[in-house]
From TrEMBL:
Short name of any one Pfam family annotated for the protein: Hepar_II_III_C
This protein's name: Heparinase II/III-like protein
InterPro entries: Chondroitin_lyas (IPR008929), Hepar_II_III_C (IPR012480)
Coiled coil: none
Annotated signal peptide: 1-24
Alphabetized GO MF terms: lyase activity
Keywords for this protein: Signal
Keyword Signal: yes
Domain Heparinase II/III-like C-terminal: 431-553
Species of provenance: Sphingobacterium wenxiniae
One Gene Ontology term, aspect cellular component: cell envelope
Compartments, as annotated in UniProt: Cell envelope
Top-rank taxon: Bacteria
């Protein structure tokens, strides 16, 4: 039990306290009550047949060229030699913190099985069935579908999965949803080959997913007990459990129990979100947070025969809109917290919100991303393939080039502003964030900001590295990229920001005056008392008409210990001049950081990137610009500008 308690303590530390931001609203329970659940259960046999024909129709209507790609993909793995999953591989996480070796093997199994299934769906000749059965049987024989990094919550702690202590994690949920879809789509074909396969699917889904879900309320992500944290796990697992129950379960008593519990649990996720719909975990997690909620809503409306609708629910609508406001340009997104700077969210999940709320902007955004993504159809997951196949033609009929976004947007809940110049000779994009250092997937970044010109990064958030044991453990803030000194923030008297909800922004304001926007924030409370700072007010004035950002750091210290330093992170090699630093971007445009050389001393430090995940975004190094404040004044004003010089 102690292993479970320590793990949850670590999660609370690095992911947030889990306290709801709002009182219980019970949005799902109000719509999906006992009467609605009874109606869903009673109509499931006919609904499943409808779903089967619907999915088959998605596949049949795909263009011949897309179908051929699917068949070729299946043919390439027709002779796949299925890898074993060794106990020693699973135990690596306990002994050395490595979670990827086991997960890579599992993911390869899942990917190959999916490609074979999709090939069979398209071709429908039985050619892939024997190898599909191999993949299914191996998956069903796995002792657990839970990741070694997540099994630590079992009562016996990290190690091999306890057969008497069933747990459900993200991987288990995804595997269950895929197996459920395969069961519905290929049951007849599998029964013709061997009826035991379908029986085995039903049994393992019951044993590993449906019964534990129905009988237990102590899984932390369910949020059915006091003091548990709320994050994307809740809705991600719940949505996959919903799909599993609707597609497979024939035990009406258990099914009703599962659906009732799902509504209560998923409501905790919705309650936790602020009214403005902002995702504190960042856009990389949106697809597994609000993006999954959109899927849940769609499935609930569908399974109820459209007798329930969430169309008038503004909060859920705004949760969908967040991903649009978090977009910079192309495949560039905000990457505060553990988000990735380069990504393409599932267009189908965004389209779902556009459909649920008849939102033309979200539909256009989905089509825009579809044009970037290229390979729209996901072949590595059956459910993702079906989701994208269902909107394949809709995305192509919609004009993504018509996408237009607001010049300014502000999320009060995150104290996050996004601004863009829409300048004819170069689009300057700016974003800043306040909040606390106790949010989910936190980096110590209160008051940090980023700046892009067109699609090119100028000042950046380095972002998250490869997940290891340290990422979600007590050593999280020993990782350099989690520290405030590697963000666009000051080091005050030699002291960095501290993690935890107590370390927070103060007096955050966002205002428009004429053609300029001002974002101001006092970041002094984000630093521990050792920083000896009374006030550090950072004012950022964005002038879109001239493509300029004016920053002023006004501070008051209790004591001067050593020079404070203002850090600015960039992937572009800086050239230091007398009173400015030049950044020449890949498109030849020049950005200059101007400062008063009487006030600050500039320097540049190169940081080698060893983490593969970070290197894929920024290359083999990034640069840290230091503006060291001269003198030993307790009260000082430090202005500097970031400006596009040649356009």
């Amino acid at each position: 039990m102690r292993g479970f308690q320590l793990y949850i303590a670590f999660l609370l530390l690095v992911l947030g306290s889990g306290q709801s931001q709002l009182s219980a609203q019970q949005m799902l329970q109000d719509k999906i009550n006992i009467e609605q659940i009874n109606g869903i259960v009673e109509s499931l046999p006919s609904w499943r047949m409808q779903k089967l024909h619907e999915w088959r129709g998605y596949v049949d209507r795909l263009p011949s060229a897309e179908k051929q790609k699917v068949i070729v993909s299946a043919e390439r793995v027709q002779d796949f030699d299925w890898p074993s999953l060794f106990a020693t591989q699973y135990m690596e996480y306990k002994f050395n913190g490595n979670r990827t070796n086991y997960e890579q093997t599992v993911n390869k199994r899942r990917d190959v099985l999916s490609r074979l299934v999709l090939g069979e769906l398209v071709e429908n000749k039985g050619r892939f069935i024997p190898q599909i059965v191999n993949g299914l049987w191996l998956t069903l024989e796995e002792s657990t579908w839970v990741s070694p990094a997540h099994i630590v919550v079992q009562k016996s702690g990290a190690g091999l999965a306890d057969p008497l202590d069933s747990y459900i994690d993200l991987g288990a949920g995804r595997t269950a949803a895929d197996l459920s879809a395969i069961y519905l789509l290929l049951k007849d074909e599998l029964d013709e080959y061997s009826p035991q396969v379908s029986k085995k699917i039903v049994k393992e889904l019951a044993d590993k997913i449906l019964t534990p879900y129905a009988e237990r309320d102590d899984f932390w992500w369910m949020n059915l007990r006091e003091g548990t944290l709320v994050n994307n796990w809740n809705i991600w697992v719940n949505t996959n459990v919903l799909k599993t129950a609707l597609l497979v379960d024939t035990d009406d008593v258990r099914l009703r129990k599962v659906l009732q519990k799902l509504m209560v649990s998923a409501d905790k996720f919705i309650d936790f979100y602020p009214e403005d719909g902002a995702c504190e975990e960042g856009p990389s997690y949106w697809g597994h947070a609000a993006g999954e909620l959109g899927q849940m809503i769609q499935w609930l409306e569908d399974a109820s025969g459209q007798r329930v609708s969430f169309k008038e629910n503004n909060k859920i609508h705004q949760m969908g809109n967040y991903i649009l406001h978090a977009h910079i340009t192309g495949n560039r997104f905000l990457n505060f917290a553990d988000a990735e700077a380069i990504q393409v969210p599932y267009p189908a999940k965004i389209w779902t919100y556009g459909t649920l709320y008849d939102d033309a902007s979200l539909k256009a955004f989905a089509a825009y991303l579809d044009g970037i993504k290229g390979e729209t159809l996901s072949l590595g997951s059956v459910q993702d393939f079906l989701m994208t196949a269902g909107v394949y033609h809709d995305l192509r009929k919609t004009d993504g080039t018509a996408l237009r976004k607001n010049t300014a947007h502000y999320y009060e809940s995150l104290q996050m502003a996004t601004l863009r110049s829409n300048h004819a000779k170069g689009d300057l994009f700016f974003a800043a964030i306040g909040g606390t250092n106790g949010v989910s997937h936190n980096h110590n970044d209160v008051g940090s900001f980023m700046l892009y010109l067109d699609s090119l990064p100028v000042l950046i958030d380095v972002g998250v590295g490869t997940y290891t044991k340290e990422t979600f453990g007590p050593n999280r803030y020993a990782l350099w990229n989690m520290q405030s000194q590697w963000h666009n923030l000051p080091i005050i008297n030699g002291i960095q920001q501290k993690d935890g909800k107590a370390f927070t922004a103060q007096d955050v304001k966002f205002e428009q005056k004429g053609n300029t926007y001002t974002y101001s924030i006092d970041i002094s409370q984000a630093y521990p008392k050792e920083a000896r700072v009374k006030q550090w007010n950072r004012e950022l004035i964005f002038s879109p008409t001239v493509n300029r950002l004016l920053i002023t750091e006004d501070y008051v210290l209790e004591e001067w210990i050593q020079p404070s330093e203002i850090m600015l992170m960039t992937p572009v090699k800086p050239i230091v001049e007398h009173s400015s630093i030049s950044l020449t971007l890949a498109n030849g445009k020049l950005v200059k950081i101007g400062f008063d050389s009487k006030v600050v001393e500039p320097s540049v430090e190169a940081k080698s990137i060893e983490d593969i995940r970070i290197a894929k975004i920024w290359g083999d190094q990034v640069f840290r610009i230091k503006l060291s404040v001269k003198g030993n004044k307790l009260k000082q004003s430090v202005p500097y500008t970031v400006e596009v010089v040649n356009q």
